[in-house]
Design goal:
single chain, alpha/beta
Length: about 150
């Protein structure tokens, strides 16, 4: 379609309607929180370790697996186009970016950290809390100290 925008809010609503309770994470959450210049062509969702990913023809999904504790932590609900969507919080999203840096790239994680701190959307304490939860404190420590 000529006026299609990748990662637009309508695709999030479409995913939520077909797979209720899905949790948007990583690049999709960064886009929702306006922390990145990336325009993901896939919708990133999180499921439990033993969960089955939803099968949708459109939009394309990218699924990552979280433990039960990390799936429940940092999830918030937002209203988008009349639908409630679940998305990871800013601090949790940044910590997740460091955890999955091999999938999305360290440059994306660093950009998310810089933007979250610059815009004061996440405190250092919140970032540290989720870094401990995701077991990425040793990875995040030097970058967090540099931007703090």
């Amino acid at each position: 379609m000529p006026d299609y925008q990748s990662g637009s809010q309508s695709s999030l609503v479409a995913v939520t309607k077909r797979a209720p309770g899905v949790l948007f994470c990583l690049l999709t959450a960064l886009r929702i929180h306006e922390l990145t210049s990336q325009a993901p062509f896939e919708v990133w969702i999180a499921i439990g370790n033993k969960g089955h990913p939803p099968r949708l023809d459109y939009p394309p999904l990218r699924t990552v697996r979280f433990s039960a504790a990390t799936l429940a932590a940092g999830a918030e609900t937002r209203q988008v186009d009349g639908a409630n969507i679940r998305v990871t919080s800013v601090a949790k999203t940044v910590a997740d970016c460091f955890k999955f840096r091999n999938k999305i790239g360290l440059d994306v994680a660093l950009e998310a950290l810089r933007e979250a701190r610059r815009a004061k959307k996440a405190s250092a304490d919140d970032l540290w809390h989720y870094a401990k939860l995701n077991r990425v404190t040793n990875v995040m420590r030097p970058y967090l100290e540099a931007v703090a």
